[in-house]
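Researcher: Go.
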Amino acid sequence: MTKLSLKFIPPTCGATLVLPIVLALSLPASVSAQSKDQKQPSAAEVKAYQKKLFKQLDQDRNKKLTEKEFVVAVLYDDFNNQDSNRDGRLSKAEFLKNAPKRSGSKEWKMMDPSGKGTIGFEDVFKNRIAVDEMKKKFTELDRAGKGYVTLDEVLNASS
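Model: Structure:
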């Protein structure tokens, strides 16, 4: 069995946007093996991981994730996966390694307008392209337009 780990490094992007864990819900690719020697997780392992993450993100235990919870968590998951040296910041090189070629430099300039060369998680929200893309993904999951997604909707979307 492949070992999957949960990442409990809370982002600090303002009091209303702090979440205690990374979300890998609709993005099974973000759930990766711990080293190159380990096999990729099975579909059952990914689902179990998604269930555990969903429950931990559901702070009020209402079995629903709002758009804000979803967007922050997915962006944090992406940020954490790109932070290859695990210093809590992204360098331009780390970001551009995984960014879309057509918009990567444009997105970096949005997040690092002063040109300091690194960004923290709070800077990710300056990237309107990424935020809008995550909102679109949320809308795809929230087909009924309720303003929240349930665990079943997430699991059905990723199967």
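Model: Residues 1-35 have pLDDT under 50 and may be disordered.
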